Amino acid sequence: MSMQPQYPGHGAPGPGPYGPPQGNYPPPGPPPGGPWHGHVPPGGPRPDARRTRLITIAVIVAVVVIGAAGGVWFWTSGGDGGSAGADTPAAQDYEAAVESVGAAEVAWQVPQGVAPKTIGVDDHWVTGEHLVRRLPGRVVAYDMKTGKQAWEVPVGKVDDSRCPSSQEHSKLRVALLVATGDGTSSLCEKLVVVDIGTGKEVVAADLPPVKGGQVRVTDVPVVFGEAVVVPSQAGVRVLDINTGAVRSTPSPDAACQSRSVGLFGDLLLAHAVCGNAGNQLRAFDANLKSVWEWATPKGKDGKPLPVLDVVSADPLVVELGHFGHETQLMRVDPASGRTVPISAYVRGKYMSACDGWSLGYCDRARVAGNKVIVMTPPTQVNPDTKDASPGMRSTEFRNELVAFDLDTGKEAWRTGMVAGRALSLVPVTDGGVVAYQPANPNGSKGLVLSVDPGTGKLAPLMAIGPKAHADDKLNKHVRTFGFGADNHQAVWRDGLFVMFKTTHRAASQGDPDTVAFALPR
């Protein structure tokens, strides 16, 4: 046998404890190969965020685009402070949102702690009470209502946090891989399980050695029931979540090796590489017994396509292929093998739905209402072009959301390209489809919107208020485009919008890191 979760289901976001019920969600641009070149996340495949946990920073003279692979922030120096073009449709939508739902301000914020270098800090979990984050050398829980630190558990070294964690929890237990070497290798040698309900370490254990199957920083573990499943190039190790005891290791004679895994509800999915037999996507139940297998189709070169990632398990929606090349998005019936390809999903027209690090890393796509919703890449609009808004003085970027029907593969709706507006999908915990419109230098301001999966209609959930936009220290937060990569992540939960950096730098210690916005009661 050899096998992240998605934020659950779909439907309208509901009311919560953080506010009232809301809603019915200049110079040339980046150089070739930069953030939006081709059918890949901004910046291409995530630039070794998990492979080395080091982030490359690209600075462009007047328009600065940071990082990447899915997340960027837009900043234009000079100008009039954001008042130009304030009558754009996006700016008008913001003003209407303030009138209808109110303006949110910072409910709480947490400064960045110690970071010895540039390092990725994207692993996190949301519980009933806390936002829990894996930070350099520690796991920390913050109260979702106040931002106060609830507890902290030391894990690994402060200067070496390159190994990944499970993206889900099982009865509030999470698995963290830890490096024990000198920081120069890409290996993870140890497993630590933490109870994020109590803030206590459950167990620490060495990963069993497997010939040709060392666990690397790209091998993301999964917690499933009472087991921790750790993938590698040789297959998976299975350890007991409470004791660290080894349940199984991959056989060197196995015909297939499951090299990436992901948890989707009650199913564990695995991408298995089977030599000349090609690639398979396999499903396992809670007892790690096989439920179904699906062999991937062949690509243009006649070779079976690898499973890049899984967007959804029910219905099953997968992305096949390799980063930097043409990929295929399709619905699959694993019982019959029938597929419904999304033929219009081609390189350059849409942002890659998934990151491909572990099954389920698909922050730029959602499946809802029998549709798959994807993002188009940002289009640069300069003030002197025909698409510029009246009075526009600064370069801006625009994009839209597009949905495809999973029964036909045909386009179902578009939100439309709107002056002053870019849209990013936001992870949610309550089953909705939510998007964020970042602030830009032409008068658009931060706006959280619900998305009707049936029609693509947008409705305001929260308008980020003027104080946050006037605070230079929050500039990167309110202007963030694209979540779930090496720049920022976000969570919408019960009327609370939390944004946090996923890259820490020594120079940014003390700067705002985790910031929560809420409407006044």
How does this structure look, described?
This protein has 521 residues and is mainly β. 4% of the residues lie in helices and 36% in strands. The chain has 3 helices and 38 strands. The strands form 10 sheets. It has an 8-stranded mixed beta sheet. The chain has a 4-stranded antiparallel beta sheet with strand order 5-6-7-8, with no helix packed on it. A 4-stranded antiparallel beta sheet has the order 12-13-14-15, with no helix packed on it. Strand 16 and strand 17 (267-273) form a beta hairpin. It starts with 62 loop residues before the first strand and ends with a strand. Mean pLDDT is 83; it is low at 1-70 and 73-82. This is Pyrrolo-quinoline quinone repeat domain-containing protein. The chain crosses the membrane at residues 54-75. Keywords: Membrane, Transmembrane, Transmembrane helix.
Q: What is the number of strand segments?
A: 38
Give the N-to-C terminal Cα separation: 52 Å
Quickly give the structural class. mainly beta
Q: What is the share of helical residues? A: under 10%
Can you count the helices? Answer: 3
Rg to the nearest angstrom?
A: 22 Å
Overall pLDDT score: 83
Largest sheet: 8 strands, mixed
List the strand order in the largest sheet.
30-31-32-33-3-38-36-35
Content of β-strand: 35-45%
What does the overall shape look like?
globular
Poorly predicted sequence stretches spanning 5 or more consecutive residues: 1-70, 73-82
Structure characteristics:
membrane; mainly beta; transmembrane helix; transmembrane; Pyrrolo-quinoline quinone repeat domain-containing protein; PQQ_b-propeller_rpt; globular
